[in-house]
Design a protein that fits this description.
The complex is a heterodimer. Chain A is an alpha/beta fold. Chain A is built from 10 helices and 10 strands. In chain A, the strands form 2 sheets. A 6-stranded mixed beta sheet of chain A has the order 6-7-8-3-9-10, sandwiched between helices. A 4-stranded antiparallel beta sheet of chain A has the order 2-1-4-5. In chain A, β1 and β2 form a beta hairpin. By secondary structure, chain B is an all-alpha fold. Classes of the chains: A alpha/beta, B mainly alpha.
Chain lengths: 298, 286
């Protein structure tokens, strides 16, 4: 099967998965607007159980808004978003019990120790008291924070806070881990460390991971499948290799020499973003207003 | 699209973690029905106590203002004898008012705290847990209550040192605790409700300043309702702080009070506050 570069126009691509397993996340024509600004504009997406799915795109592409719809933070009409078959509009509590969520900001409470930060999430996910300490210790161990567990989070580095947030998300044994730009603002070593911990935990637990990023290299290296998002829709969907090869093949048919290096995921994205700008059907939107709201609609 | 991932993951080459993650494989059993709310309230109160344990600065700095009120205002007005207090020294009359005031000042900061938590991503993360919004707000409201209660204990000790004749009847002190918690629950919800309307810290700080002084001076904390002009009496009548002070005075000093009405008004006010703040919490999440 060729990579579905025109995914946004083909609703079937939203439900196909690389693995053929049950959908962990399924969005059908998901749309969300902030006033005049359409952040997500008919998003079709299906994330297979057990895969690492990367939602890629620049600031303002609608990634964060899509994530916030999936995590029940933004209200969407019934039928648009399902998590393991549960409708996020009707079964919010069931959906939340299956989620581990790491938002874009470094969101650990700086006035608490690492252990207390994780224990809070154990409490709000109803971990029984007799099991709490052991579970919190395992979550901290899984992200290599055992030694720093009893220090206040305000003494942690950025990478450590991210790992702490990962422990907070893991303590409830989620089936779906959602990470919004998990490596933004981190140095390269911390970025690698965060990803290595995500992967180690995923391999140990088999959980599904949905991650947004605008680092194409990370997506290429760590994601099973990626969806390239631009202006509120998925513009291309497939494994990173499929997308790169698809563009390479097209360039060769258009006359590029066979000796040209294989395009990177960034090349694929540039290609998609270019065509995406042309096929906007929602009318011209003021660039300045998009920029102004970029922070909110991320 | 059935090919293997294009790029190998670095971790896939690593051996599986040698430590035990067995507990992280099973989701915890959900608490059902009525047990959920107290569990969330305990979780939020625990966080507040843990924070206070790590940094007690706020506890000490917040003790300064009530101490000054009692020491300067209280002692001076006791000498002047300008305010009719029903035969008790003015400093005694003032002490319950200052306990209520310092508790209210703590609670009124909760709106700013929830906006800070929104900006830091903490609120969003909590909203993605199986915690209904009303349970989250109730938890915050009671956390404000617990923090205010600790502050109230500090002010009671200061008052006792300054010679205020307070009751040491444990039942009455438990009543004082309940009143302080209910009052703070209401004022924290008032603040979180305004936070849900104005959505920004700067605007909320303006609102906070604008409402705290009228709430304080428009109550019976400093002087009896009877000596107020008619319009201020009307304000005092709808001001929950007046009911809080009335109950605290009755319990701590044994002055005539309307304990039943005071409890009922504070309970209803706290419930309405929780309902209002919960309904606006979604705006903060957007």
């Amino acid at each position: 099967m060729t990579p579905s570069i025109d995914a946004a126009t083909d609703s079937d691509t939203g439900t196909a998965t690389a693995t053929g397993r049950a959908a962990a996340v399924s969005c059908t024509r998901l749309a969300y607007s902030f006033g005049e600004t359409t952040a997500v504009d008919g998003l079709d997406l299906s994330v297979g159980e057990g895969e690492v799915f990367g939602l890629l795109g620049p600031n303002g592409a609608g990634k964060t808004t899509a994530i916030r719809c999936i995590t029940t933070l933004l209200p969407v009409p019934a039928g648009m978003v399902h998590v393991f078959g549960h409708d996020t509009a009707k079964e919010q509590m069931s959906v939340r019990r299956m989620l581990g969520y790491v938002p874009q900001q470094l969101s650990a409470d700086s006035g608490l120790t690492g252990r207390e930060n994780v224990a809070l999430f154990a409490r709000v996910f109803d971990v029984p008291r007799k099991e709490r300490a052991a579970r919190v210790a395992q979550a901290l161990r899984a992200v290599d924070l055992t030694d720093a567990a009893d220090r206040l989070a305000n003494t942690y580095s950025g990478g450590m806070v991210r790992r702490l947030e990962l422990a907070q998300a893991l303590v409830s044994a989620p089936r779906l881990l959602i990470l919004d730009e998990p490596t933004i603002g981190l140095d390269p070593i911390a970025r690698t460390s965060v990803w290595e911990h995500i992967n180690a935990v995923r391999e140990a637990t088999g959980m599904t991971v949905l991650v947004t990023t605008h680092y194409m290299d990370e997506a290429d290296q760590y994601c099973d499948r990626v969806g390239l998002m631009h202006r509120g829709r998925i513009r291309a969907l497939g494994t990173p290799e499929q997308l790169r090869e698809g563009l390479g093949e097209r360039r060769r048919t258009e006359g590029a020499p066979a000796t040209d290096p294989l395009p990177t995921l960034e090349d694929v994205f540039r290609d998609i973003a270019g065509s995406g700008l042309e096929d906007q059907s929602g009318g011209f939107r003021d660039v300045r207003s998009t920029r102004r709201t970029a922070n909110r609609v991320g | 699209m059935s090919e293997a991932p294009a790029a190998p993951r670095t971790a896939s080459a690593d051996p599986a973690p040698e430590y035990d993650l067995n507990l992280l494989l099973t989701p915890p059993q959900p608490r059902a029905g009525w047990r959920l709310l107290p569990a969330r309230v305990i979780a939020m109160c625990a966080v507040e106590l843990q924070k206070l344990r790590h940094d007690r600065t706020e506890l000490y700095t917040r003790a300064v203002q009530p101490a000054l009120w009692l020491l300067i205002f209280g002692q001076t007005f006791t000498r002047i004898k300008a305010i009719p207090t029903g035969g008790i020294p003015y400093i005694d009359y003032l002490a319950p008012g200052i306990i209520a005031q310092s508790a209210m000042f703590i609670a009124i900061f909760y709106g700013i705290q929830i906006i800070w938590e929104r900006d830091a991503g903490i609120l969003n993360k909590l909203l993605v847990t199986p915690t209904p919004r009303s349970a989250l707000i109730t938890g915050k409201a009671f956390a404000a209550g617990v923090k205010s209660l600790i502050q109230a204990v500090v002010v009671i000790v200061i008052a006792a040192i300054l010679g205020v004749a307070l009751t040491w009847n444990p039942l009455k002190l438990i009543g004082v605790g309940a009143i302080v918690i209910l009052g703070s629950a209401f004022f924290s919800c008032l603040s979180m409700t305004i936070a849900g309307i104005v959505l920004s810290r700067d605007r909320l700080m303006g609102f906070g300043q604008a409402i705290t002084m009228p709430l304080f001076f428009g109550s019976n904390a400093l002087y009896p309702v009877a000596i107020m002009p008619g319009w201020l009496q009307a304000v005092s009548k709808v001001n929950p702080l007046s009911y809080e002070v009335d109950a605290l005075r009755g319990l701590l000093l044994g002055t005539p009070s309307h304990l039943g009405t005071d409890f009922a008004v504070l309970l209803v006010a706290a419930a309405l506050g929780i309902a209002a703040a919960s309904s606006l919490l979604g705006r903060l999440a957007r």
